[in-house]
Amino acid sequence: MENAKRRLLGCSLDELRSIAAEVGLPRFAAKQMAEWLYVHCVPSIADMTNLSKQSRQRLSERYTVGWLPPVDAQHSKDGTIKYLFPTESGHTVETVFIPDGDRATLCVSSQVGCKMNCLFCQTGKQGFQGQLTTADILNQIFALPERKQLTNIVYMGQGEPMDNLDAVLHSTEVLTADWGCQWSPKRITVSSVGVRTKLKRFLDESDCHVAISLHNPFPAERAQIMPAERGMSISDVVALLSQYDFTHQRRLTFEYIVFRGLNDSQQHANELLRLLRPLHCRVNLIRFHQIPNVDLQGASDAQMIRLRDYLTQHGLTTTIRASRGQDIYAACGLLNTARHN
Which residues have a catalytic role annotated? Predict the structure, then answer.
């Protein structure tokens, strides 16, 4: 990125109006800039051809679009691609592109590292190294070589989205606004372990799908692997979610990594049914991917199938998520950029 120039990427329509006024452009130029940024996705101010040459020059003196291309890419044998993107602060984050037939999902990061320190997650082992700006989050989408193929975006990469809520909400606004990318919010899913006050604000201010990292229905056991349980218990999360309507287009999912001998028993299955009974939701079972120095084992495929079938038969729709990109450390829980930062 050009030194001392601010990025236009991530700016709202109101912010673009302020920028237009600052550099002496007419108010309507903000709408033109938004269209170039978010509909035509141009990488350079010089490409905004319905602005006069003089206007583009004045704008370029202080601003840049601000795309930061990936500095590395790793390709999995299953077609998944893990990109390493630079950030404005000089750090890096990992972003995972997952093609699947006529669908293509991008798993984006919201922080450099993570404060939540879940026992089973490599990002948590990295610790927290900084927040991503709105532009940093959107850059993972706009500077992606496969951007035009995307059908879905999930905020399930590095970091806890609710712990960087302003930037996350700002980025989803750009993606869904009439002046922005005009995506349906139903193409976007935002995950969370449950962060008090922040989760409620997200539910009130966004129509995007919600995914809750559950992983154990018993609070004491959940706290042993997820310290965030002590800040907002899973029972409080469920109580909050029960105040919202998920019976129409907005979807609520609970993510559940299945560990052998830890959360895969009949008692856990029954408690899941009891806990989630008030909600219109589904459960996504996830295979555990081994990480160094953590004494946890994944449940067998047979046990995951038994758990899936039992929950589904008792009225809780449950699926098993296909594991993708494990050979390049791109699968769930494996993202970590400590070596680059």
Answer: 94, 332
